[in-house]
Design a protein that fits this description.
Distance between the termini: 91 Å
Strand order of the largest sheet: 1-2
Number of helices: 3
Radius of gyration: 30 Å
Structural class: mainly alpha
Strand content: 5-15%
Order of helices and strands: HHHEE
Helix content: 55-70%
């Protein structure tokens, strides 16, 4: 539950805010979950919080990489679409009814010979 909030923030708003959310989630986890255990020592609390923060920061890094790859894929898709459009124009394509472009396969008309 605590990690899910961190992942949502990291995928939508970026690494800086998600790092702060990681620390806040770790403190909330400590207060609501670990604080209830009467037999836990301070060292155990610090170890659990440290592991939680490390896991959330790794998840933040992965979410950042996924978001960066998605932006890169969108840019490449736009470049590919533009290249296909420019190639179609250079090949003398004619538009179809559905809006796509196809190359005209019909041969140009042959000149008719005059009567011999």
């Amino acid at each position: 539950m605590y990690l899910l909030g961190v992942l949502v923030v990291s995928t939508v708003w970026g690494f800086g805010l998600s790092a702060a959310t990681s620390v806040a989630s770790a403190l909330a986890f400590d207060y609501f979950e670990i604080g209830r255990a009467p037999s836990s020592s301070v060292f155990d609390d610090i170890a659990v919080i440290g592991v939680f923060v490390m896991v959330t920061l790794i998840a933040n890094s992965l979410a950042f990489l996924v978001r960066a790859r998605a932006v890169e894929a969108d840019l490449r898709r736009g470049e590919a679409s533009e290249a296909v459009t420019n190639f179609g124009r250079s090949q003398n394509c004619s538009p179809r009814c559905d809006g796509s472009r196809t190359r005209s396969l019909a041969a140009p008309p042959r000149p008719r010979c005059s009567a011999r």
